[in-house]
Design a protein that fits this description.
Layout: H1 6-31, E1 34-40, E2 43-56, E3 62-65, E4 70-75, E5 82-83, E6 88-92, H2 95-152, H3 158-212, E7 215-217, E8 222-227, E9 234-235, E10 240-246, E11 252-258, E12 270-274, E13 283-290, E14 300-307, E15 319-336, E16 341-343, E17 346-353, E18 356-368, E19 371-376, E20 383-385, E21 396-400
Parallel strand pairs: 1-21
Antiparallel strand pairs: 1-20, 2-11, 2-15, 3-10, 4-6, 4-9, 5-8, 6-7, 8-10, 11-14, 12-13, 12-15, 13-14, 15-19, 16-17, 17-18, 17-20, 18-19
Helix pairs in contact: 2-3
């Protein structure tokens, strides 16, 4: 039975009320803009850094070692003796390296002589051959021209005419060969001679450095506690041969750095160290040395940082964090890590376009400290969005991030 009269009116009123409520709830959701935190990217300068954690090195003694394998030829230390900074402690057998140095010096001298000969003799010979070839070519061309006229007048035989033509062609070929030889000397062989000199110079420098590495010196004034290798023994690179205590105590930090950063870090780079025990304090220092062995399980290698001064507050074996400055990026488009989405090796960000979120791919390079250089995909002045809660095409309302 269908409602009629007042009952029908009541049903219609309920339906109208329900529709109004639905409109009030659903329509705002349809047309509502989602707030999106945004910032404007711009080109700036930034430090390139590597972050890592580690510990304060407990012992104050310093292990000494050679940087290359070799047999110890002489030792100039006694346990417990005090020595001045940079004093010679041990020396390896230098005979094999002296031979390599002599060979490198000879090779460099020969390379330079070869270039001198190329410039003073070979080029002069080649230029003289070109001059002679040009004269012969001119003579053969003129003679062929005269023989052609005489042959037309039947004053010379066909055999004489053909011989003059062959002589002309041979002279032209000889000239082309001489010119090619001269060009080769100038453009190719001179470059090859320069490359040979450069290579032999590098070989000589390496031989000189290798010879320098056979001498073990004291890193500072101090005392030799003990030495573990003696004259006549063969030692490996990095093998401890002596234990040394500097007169002035210092604080060292050992950190574990991801092996992918091995090519970015070098001794002497500045570092800042923080400790959870002393919030707000920053201890400065420099990279002293890099470990020679990679931890295969962790994919990292050790680095020792020497602080600029002795820090008694940093207790041995306590945990610290370190930031090493490896370089400076100039005039690059900077992007914070929190704006970047990662999908495997691909990276993307959200930008604002016509009031909606748009996901775009980008190419980035990690500068450390949560900063990335954007190489492709963005332009200076564009607004990038924090990705949380966003999807492609979502209607948004920009909210600038607080400074």
């Amino acid at each position: 039975m269908k409602p009629t009269g007042p009952a029908l009116s009541k049903v219609l009123l309920w339906l109208a009320a329900a529709a109004a409520v639905a409109a009030l709830v659903i329509l705002p959701r349809i047309f509502k803009s989602t707030p999106a935190w945004s910032t404007t990217v711009a080109t700036q300068d930034a430090l390139e850094t590597v972050l890592a954690s580690g510990r304060v090195v407990g012992e104050k003694s310093v292990p000494l070692s050679f940087v290359r394998p070799g047999r110890i030829a002489a030792e100039f230390i006694r346990d417990g003796s005090r020595i001045a900074a940079h004093s010679v402690l041990m020396r390896q057998d230098t005979r094999p390296l002296e031979q390599a140095l002599a060979q490198a010096q000879t090779a460099l001298a020969e390379a330079r002589l070869k270039k001198d000969k190329l410039l003073s003799v070979d080029l002069a010979d080649a230029e003289e051959k070109v001059r002679q070839a040009k004269a012969n070519n001119a003579y053969a061309a003129d003679f062929f021209s005269r023989q052609t006229e005489l042959f037309a007048q039947k004053s010379v035989s066909l055999l004489q005419y053909e011989q003059s033509r062959r002589d002309r062609d041979l002279a032209a070929s000889a000239l082309a060969a001489a010119e090619n030889q001269l060009r080769s000397l100038k453009e190719v062989q001179t470059v090859q001679a320069d490359l040979a000199i450069s290579k032999t110079e590098n070989d000589l420098k390496k031989a000189e450095l290798d010879l320098d590495d056979t001498i073990l010196t004291a890193p500072a004034a101090g005392m030799v506690v003990s030495h573990d290798a003696h004259a006549g023994e063969f030692v490996q690179a990095g093998q401890r041969v002596a234990l040394f205590i500097p007169e002035a105590p210092r604080t060292s930090i050992e950190i574990q750095v991801d092996e992918t950063n091995a090519g970015r870090i070098a001794p002497g780079q500045p570092a800042s160290v923080t400790s959870p025990a002393y919030p707000g304090r920053v201890f400065t220092g420099k990279v002293e040395r890099l470990g020679a062995i990679v931890d295969a399980q962790r994919g990292s290698f050790p680095i020792v940082i020497a602080l600029d001064r002795f820090e008694p507050d940093l207790l041995p074996e306590s945990s610290v964090s370190a930031q090493i400055t490896t370089g400076r990026a100039t005039d690059v488009l900077l992007l914070e890590q929190r704006f970047i989405l990662r999908e495997g090796e691909k990276a993307s960000v959200y930008i604002e376009e016509n009031g909606r979120a748009k996901k775009v791919p980008v190419s980035v390079r990690d500068l450390g400290s949560g900063l990335f250089e954007c190489r492709e995909g963005l332009k200076s002045g564009q607004s990038v969005l924090l990705p949380q809660g966003l999807k492609d095409g979502l209607k948004i309302k920009l909210k600038p991030l607080p400074e």
